[in-house]
Amino acid sequence: MHVELRKHARFEHFGHVACDELSPVVGVLDDISIGGCRVHFDVPVTLSFETDYEVRVRLSRFPTEELSLICHPVWTREDDGTTTIGFSVLRSPDTVRLESFVAQLRQEKQEIDDDGLPQEEDQCLFV
Questions:
Q1: Mean pLDDT in each 10-residue stretch from start to end of the chain (127 residues)?
Q2: Could you say which of 32, 64, 69, 76 is the most buried, measured as most Cβ atoms within 10 Å of its Cβ?
Q3: CA–CA separation, 2 vs 109, rounded Å?
């Protein structure tokens, strides 16, 4: 079992990510938290670990709204032309909206957990 120690809980959520400084191609949001996010681009991306980037996130639940987040790259991985980047989210113009969205995801996860559905780390055996 793989356990990640993080300051903030991450939630898998689909969305589109745009960052003109990194790529003309829109990226995909893999997961998000108050403190960070993981995105991938289906093209090679060159970035600087010394630079903060304005990342515009369009969440699947709110396709007409865009979050403007200031992000700092923490790690990157390239595999077969796909670039995955782990960002730390800094204080941003839409920090309050991000916090509200993450709180909503946390509440929904808690409601599912309260229903007694299997957790990710639980094993399900079918007989």
A1: 51 83 93 89 94 92 84 94 94 89 78 55 45
A2: 32
A3: 20
